[in-house]
UniProtKB/TrEMBL annotation:
<keyword id="KW-0238">DNA-binding</keyword>
<dbReference type="InterPro" id="IPR009057">
    <property type="entry name" value="Homeodomain-like_sf"/>
</dbReference>
<feature type="DNA-binding region" description="H-T-H motif">
    <location>
        <begin position="29"/>
        <end position="48"/>
    </location>
</feature>
<dbReference type="InterPro" id="IPR001647">
    <property type="entry name" value="HTH_TetR"/>
</dbReference>
<feature type="domain" description="HTH tetR-type">
    <location>
        <begin position="6"/>
        <end position="66"/>
    </location>
</feature>
<protein>
    <submittedName>
        <fullName>TetR family transcriptional regulator</fullName>
    </submittedName>
</protein>
Amino acid sequence: MPPKTKFSKEKIIDTAFEIARVEGIDQITIRKVADKMGSSIAPIYVNFTDIEELKKAVLDKIQGIFQEMLRTPYSENPFLNIGIVSVKFAREFSVFFRDMVMKQNTYINEAQPDMSSILELMKQDAQLNGFTDEELTEIFFKMRVFQLGLSVMDVNGLLPEDYDEEKLIKVLQSAGGDIITAAHLRKNDKNTGSGA
């Protein structure tokens, strides 16, 4: 009798990840993972107490992918790079994006960016010199609202057909510039006392 195949925790997570990538996180089941691996459910229960623990491991993997993408310099401009990563992630992992952003569920809490690392990236951008953490957080929030809207339109086919990735990046760059310019004007008005 041939020896039983052993399935590592990583193999189980990778298999669940592939199911979620195509079908969505809610579609991960112990039985589906076992079937896809050609296994019984036993190896899964050896490594995970329940399906929620496995889904959490998949969410951690997704978050790791996003963090790795954030470390990739798609642009020389750190603030623009954050937006590019978000658009690229939404395009490459559209099912995950829909699960975490467009559905009413608990996954959105898992998908929130780590603000301390976002602020550190923003502080590397010369255009954002002189802003406090609070001001940077507000700038990021406004840009995130725009970027999420753009990504939702993109993954749902609501943009003009000629909107390739290059055009999306130009739109992000333009909107980011507008948000930063407005923030500088507000800060200047506040400092000179001429603001409303």
